[in-house]
Fold:
Amino acid sequence: MAIILDGKALAEQTRQRIAQEVTTLSRQPGLAVILVGDDPASRLYVSNKEKDCAQCGFKSFEHRMAADTTEAELLALIAELNTNDDVDGILVQLPLPKHLNEEMVIQSIAPEKDVDAFHPYNVGRMSQGKPVFLPCTPAGVMAILKAYDIDVAGKDCVVIGRSNIVGKPMGMLLTQANGTVTICHSRTPNLAEYTKRADILVAAVGREGLVRADMVKEGAVVIDVAMNRNAAGKFCGDVDFEAVKAVASHITPVPGGVGPMTRALLLENILTAAKRK
Ligand SMILES: NC(=O)C1=CN([C@@H]2O[C@H](COP(=O)(O)OP(=O)(O)OC[C@H]3O[C@@H](n4cnc5c(N)ncnc54)[C@H](OP(=O)(O)O)[C@@H]3O)[C@@H](O)[C@H]2O)C=CC1
Ligand SMILES: Nc1nc(=O)c2c([nH]1)NC[C@@H]1CN(c3ccc(C(=O)N[C@@H](CCC(=O)O)C(=O)O)cc3)C=[N+]21
Ligand SMILES: [Mg+2]
Structure:
């Protein structure tokens, strides 16, 4: 049976360490979260982030905007937050309503306050191996691997998914850790051919049941990034957890795996931003 990688416990340890460090600072770090519209999943994520901030001694400023907010209104708020000295980090909850241009909005965030690391400046820095902020979800995965002494160097790593916020930067960080990386996506024929050779398999698609036990090598480390809702309305990942845990050496649960670490890495980035000021 696989070892369950406990992201929830690791995130709690991380928050306690950050809360401790915050007491040594001369001012309170601050996060501004912008939520446009009222998607229930986004609301849940935002309220969790606020609890995390409170535990760490950070200020949090929530900006809720109507679903029909114009791009000009959103950009005006970001411009104000960019120059607001109480705000160290700015997070615009994604996805945005369709009429708003995500790329434009992300580019308008001051790179030194871009704690998601989505701005092209921060993406570029990370790609060159000189990150200012690390992308939260992929860096959260790397933190889990490190905490459990799972060495990436020389390993065959397969990432399923190539989004700008998860799959692509995940591949980059695994490459920088000296893994040999394959990135699969919706146009990959015979996905199982790739997944079966992986020593470290990361699933980041958003499709329940995508990764079955017969697609996983005996003893592989399986990381499930996805957050899907199953028929019962419960969170589940892309991996058939019950079957795959009999094959894998290590596996992340959903919930309780990568999600909490994404939030922990966000807190790390806010602390970094505050200390740089
Ligand atoms: N735990 C956490 O902290 C976080 C979890 N998530 C979750 O992770 C998942 C992925 O998020 P995100 O990257 O934003 O999603 P996107 O929808 O942006 O990307 C999904 C990727 O999966 C690929 N894909 C789709 N179908 C298949 C398939 N059948 N076989 C192989 N690849 C496929 C797509 O390929 P193509 O490029 O060809 O379209 C795409 O690259 C979601 O469930 C999301 O909710 C996201 C962020 C943080
Ligand atoms: N600008 C922006 N940055 C993001 O980082 C971002 C985003 N937009 N949009 C949505 C996705 C998704 N995401 C998650 C964060 C935490 C959990 C998380 O904490 N999950 C818990 C469960 C949550 C609960 O049950 O309360 C778990 O897996 O155990 C999940 C998903 C961040 N995202
Ligand atoms: Mg997306």
Notes: The chain has a mean pLDDT of 97. The chain has two domains: 26-110, 136-259.
